[in-house]
């Protein structure tokens, strides 16, 4: 699995990098078929009162690419909500993949009748 963490108008410190990696462990624990993760952390200085911290992630899995973004006043809060959103989407995809093979069993006709014994 490749992990890329980059910053836009922000220097990615080792503390931020470690925080993101620790949070991503939760997603990797739920679904291990992750190919590539790209995290972009952005600071937009619109006005002094209205600083926005943005975290976005592109997660490539076998069969699907998931894109999630989160905005907050605090970068760590943006990362937390980003991981929560990502985890929900990954769990939803995992459930969909696991149930895919079971659909055929539901649609089988109920024609089985036990043989009558005399």
From TrEMBL:
MF term (GO), any = ribosomal small subunit binding
* Gene3D superfamilies with a match to the protein in the record: Ribosome hibernation promotion factor-like
Q: Which UniProt keywords apply?
A: Translation regulation
- Any GO BP annotation: negative regulation of translational elongation
Show the GO cellular component annotation of the record: cytosolic small ribosomal subunit
What PANTHER family does its record include? Answer: 30S RIBOSOMAL PROTEIN
The entry describes its oligomerization and partners as:
Associates exclusively with 100S ribosomes, which are dimers of 70S ribosomes.
Q: Which family does it belong to?
A: Belongs to the HPF/YfiA ribosome-associated protein family. Short HPF subfamily.
The protein here is known as Ribosome hibernation promoting factor
Q: Which organism is it from?
A: Rugamonas rubra
């Amino acid at each position: 699995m490749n992990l890329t963490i980059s910053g836009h108008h922000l220097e990615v410190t080792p503390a931020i990098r470690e925080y993101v990696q620790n949070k991503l462990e939760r997603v990797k624990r739920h679904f291990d078929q992750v190919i590539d993760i790209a995290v972009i952390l952005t600071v937009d200085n619109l006005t002094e009162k209205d600083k926005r911290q943005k975290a976005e992630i592109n997660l490539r899995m076998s069969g699907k690419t998931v894109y999630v973004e989160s905005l907050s006043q605090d970068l760590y809060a943006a990362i937390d909500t980003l991981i929560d959103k990502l985890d929900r989407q990954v769990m939803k995809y995992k459930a969909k993949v696991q149930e895919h093979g079971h659909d055929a069993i539901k649609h089988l006709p109920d024609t089985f009748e036990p043989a009558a014994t005399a």
